[in-house]
Amino acid sequence: MDYALFIVIGALTSFVGTLAGGGGLIGMPVLLLTGVPVHQAIAAAKFSNMISSFSSFFVLLGEGKIGWKQTAFIVPISLGGGITGGLLASSLPEKTMTAIAIALLTFALSLQFFRKKMTQQRSAVFSKKLYAPLYGISVYDGMFGPGQATLLMYTYLSTGLDYLSAIAFTRFQTFISCFGAFATYLYAGHVNWHIAPFLALGSVIGAQVSVRLAQKLKKEHLSLILNIVTFLLIIQLVFKMIG
């Protein structure tokens, strides 16, 4: 096993994923190309994402971008969605999930360009209207989840949150949904402990670098990164679906 390679894969995946989402579409194909079975690759990705997302969330928690009380409503939604998605992982073909990802990401990107400028309203995050989309995204994350974090970023930004707070909520929800999904893969015996810890180590490194970089970038630059990554995700998914 090339442990250094798994660390590099984890770092790159987490770096992109923390800033704009979509890191899984970098890490997952590379893992498969190295010969890792698909269920083991997904299980390792969920484990590493669980660890790295909490580490980046913890940094933003210390910076005051989010509080523990604000995250309380996310826990049952994300945990239930992650577990549901993990259990449903084998029931839908990959092409169907890819088509869903393309549709959702295209819709999210179009909203970013056409929506009116919103004011900063942290309380909007707790609207009950968000429960259904947040649960749906967590289910999608538990099943496979390409672009899951990107969709969460758009969802939280649409409430008027600033970019760093949106990252904080996204990373916390990712931690919870990945925890639920990982539990199902662990129960099914799909976790390869010769891969998952090294992928997680790299993910923590990538997450810590990116979350600190995000605090130094202007809002316009962060929004541009999110839109570019989203567009590239859509292109990659289209080619994957028709390939």
Describe this structure in words.
- The protein has helices at 3-20, 24-33, 38-62, 68-71, 74-88, 94-114, 131-143, 148-157, 163-187, 196-214, 219-242.
- By secondary structure, it is mainly alpha-helical.
- Helix 1 (3-20) packs parallel to helix 10 and helix 7 (131-143) packs across helix 9 (163-187).
- The radius of gyration is 16 Å and the shape is globular.
- Residues 116-124 have low confidence and may be disordered.
- The chain crosses the membrane at residues 44-61, 73-90, 96-114, 134-157, 163-188, 221-239.
Secondary structure blueprint with pairings:
Elements: H1 3-20, H2 24-33, H3 38-62, H4 68-71, H5 74-88, H6 94-114, H7 131-143, H8 148-157, H9 163-187, H10 196-214, H11 219-242
Helix pairs in contact: 1-2, 1-10, 2-3, 3-9, 3-10, 5-7, 5-9, 6-8, 6-11, 7-8, 7-9, 8-9
Using DSSP, what is the number of strands? Answer: 0
Unreliable residue stretches: 116-124
Give me the number of helical elements: 11
Estimate the mean pLDDT confidence: 80
Q: Using only CA atoms, what is the Rg?
A: 16 Å
**H/E element sequence:** HHHHHHHHHHH
Portion in helices: over 70%
Q: Provide the β-strand percentage band.
A: under 5%
Shape, principal axes of CA atoms: globular
The major sheet is characterized as:
none
Helix and strand content put the structural class at mainly alpha
